[in-house]
UniProtKB/TrEMBL annotation:
PANTHER family: NAD(P)-BINDING DOMAIN-CONTAINING PROTEIN-RELATED, PROTEIN YEEZ. Pfam families: Epimerase (PF01370). It comes from Mycolicibacter algericus. GO terms for cellular component: cytoplasm. This is NAD-dependent epimerase/dehydratase domain-containing protein.
Amino acid sequence: MLDYARHRGVPAVALCVSNTYGPGDWQPTPHGSLVAMAAAGKMPVYVKDMAMEVVGIEDAARALILAADKGRVGERYIISERFISARELYATAADAAGVKRPRFGIPLKAMYALGFCGDVAVASRTDPQWIRKVVHFYRSQAVAEHRASRAR
């Protein structure tokens, strides 16, 4: 995007917003849906080996406004609050809503097995919660986002 803008003389600033959470974050993303499930007390398990970059939705909104007002043209900004385990994130959502926390941690390798079951569900035209590609995507993104944010 920055190259496109630079070549066409468009003043642009790029923002890389990590996974958002908090009141008013109603975008139906996979991440947001999982946080909502935890806040509704409908998530009995979490993935043990997962962690991700997160930022509160209100902080992300303020960062977008600041970047529009004060960001340097041609720059890219990473918008993140912290790197947090899935266990801590979902427990925080459950605590804030006054519901039971997810109690059991499932190893990532077991989630891949569940993802395979999800692939079978897709092939049989049912609606799975977890498919193998999604599990792999979450794992790879969490590590990549954290490394990128710490490198800056």
